[in-house]
Every structure is written in structure tokens, then in C-alpha cells.
Design a protein that fits this description.
It contains four helices and no strands. By secondary structure, the protein is mainly α. The chain folds into two domains: 49 residues; 49 residues.
């Protein structure tokens, strides 16, 4: 039987500073080495480096330093849903205002004829 050696990393995640992330991502942009080779040399998982690179190309250094999308797709969908709801409510209120304005115009148009009929020919009531 052969022996098996188990290597553990200590159970902690490594925290990368923004400057370190940017430096490592910039190494991948010159194209002289593969992303996997740059990741190995810097002790970063290749999939993490691919993520950092994607974030930087999409959202710039702000996205990489925050290690998150500039705005997540879920948040964008929620905002779009909210915009649609507000537009629907605005349409309803606009229609209500037009109906009230039209009713007010009609009531104002009827008043002078009522007053004119109630006045006597000499101008008194």
C-alpha cells in the first residue's frame, strides 16, 4: 500500500488587496504568458484570475477592487421591474388628470350659459 499525503491550506481565505489584483490582472493583458501560468506564479486559482480579468474588462478597476460586478444582473432586473411599475402608475395618473381637466373644462363651459339665462335683460338678477 502507498501512503497518501493530505495537504490543507489552513482553512482561511487569502485576501487580495486592490493593488495586487490589478497588478496580477495587468500581467495577463500583455499576452506573453497564459492566464493559468500567471495564476500559478502568483498563487491564485486560475478561475479567480479569469473572474478578476473579466470584471476589470467589463467594469474597470472599480469592479476588481470591490471584487463584485458593478451592478448585478439581478439588481438590474429589479430596477427595470420597478421602472415598469412606476411608468404604469404614471400613465394611470396622467389619464386621471386628463379626465379631470376635461370634466372641469366642460363644467366651466356650462356655467356662462346658466348665468346668462338667469340674468334679466337690464343686467340685474
Amino acid at each position: 500500500m502507498s501512503e497518501v499525503e493530505i495537504i490543507t491550506d489552513g482553512g482561511r481565505r487569502r485576501r487580495w488587496s486592490s493593488a495586487e489584483k490589478l497588478r496580477i490582472v495587468e500581467e495577463t493583458l500583455d499576452g506573453s504568458e497564459s492566464i493559468s501560468a500567471v495564476a500559478r506564479r502568483n498563487g491564485v486559482a486560475p478561475n479567480l484570475l479569469y473572474r478578476w480579468r473579466k470584471l476589470m474588462l467589463e467594469g474597470g478597476s472599480v469592479a476588481v477592487s470591490g471584487d463584485d460586478d458593478v451592478t448585478s444582473n439581478k439588481k438590474v432586473r429589479q430596477m427595470e421591474d420597478r421602472i415598469r411599475e412606476l411608468e404604469r402608475q404614471l400613465g394611470r395618473k396622467t389619464m386621471e388628470a386628463e379626465i379631470l381637466r376635461e370634466a372641469l373644462d366642460r363644467s366651466r363651459a356650462k356655467k356662462p350659459t346658466l348665468l346668462a339665462g338667469s340674468l334679466k335683460k337690464d343686467g340685474s338678477r
